[in-house]
Amino acid sequence: MTSERLRQTFSEDGAQEIYQDIQATGDFLGFARRYAFDSDYRVARSALWGLTKATNEELSALQVIQNELIDQAMQTENSSVRRLTLNIIERLKMDEDNLRTDFLDFCFEHMVSIEEFPGIQTLCMKLAFRMCSFYPELMDELKRTLEALEIDYYKPAVKCLRKRILSGMFR
After folding, report:
1. Which residues contact 162 (CB under 8 A, 6 or more apart)?
2. What is the spatial distance between Cα 9 and Cα 5, in angstroms, rounded to a whole number?
3. Each residue of 16-66: pLDDT tens digit?
4. What angle do CA 15, 38, 49 make, to 5 degrees?
5. Domain extents in the chain
6. Which one, out of 14, 76, 141, 168, has a CA that is 20 to 30 A from the CA of 133?
7. How far, in Å, CA of 87 to CA of 36, rounded?
8. Contact assessment for residue 113 and residue 121, using Cβ atoms and an 8 Å cutoff
9. Would you state the torsion angle of the CA atoms of residues 23, 24, 26, 27, taken in this order, to the nearest 10 degrees?
């Protein structure tokens, strides 16, 4: 796998090929460290896209870089890199002991931002739910925030997830 090859991947088939190459080596962590944080957003995007094809078990190898992934999601200016990074974070284990309040604040901010893409909004909502589930007072804050949304401004995916969370149907 080379940066140049990743820079040229623009299709679902290309992402599947990247995943198959990573799977053949079995080095999900090494691949992520080498390419997922590349300063060229096209390389990072393609690497992350390929990683999203992995099973949850395969992605568990990335648990040790969860904080670096969180930092990337919060700092990148590229919405594709942000969405794909959030997708991976959402599939990793999250513990009460390592809850990052800066990331929780980020998720709250981006899940309600009407300027944000719906994919990012819903991932942030899911992640906020997971983090808040450790603390009843935070869950109450999440529910108040979701109830206060002017829901007409949001896309169907956001409306549906909001409804599922508020009705207790989301787990």
Report:
1. 125, 146, 149, 151, 154
2. 7
3. 899 999 999 999 999 999 999 999 999 999 999 999 999 999 999 999 999
4. 20
5. 1-93, 107-171
6. 76
7. 13
8. yes
9. -90
In this structure, are residues 17 and 11 in contact, taking their beta carbons and an 8 Å threshold? no
Q: Which amino acid is at 47?
A: A
Residue closest to 107 by CA, chosen among 88, 122, 92: 122
Supply the pLDDT for residue 171. Answer: 66
Q: Which residue has the higher pLDDT, 170 or 64?
A: 64
Cβ count within 10 A of residue 64? 12
Q: At residue 85, does pLDDT exceed 80?
A: yes
- Cα separation, 140 vs 142, in Å, equals 5
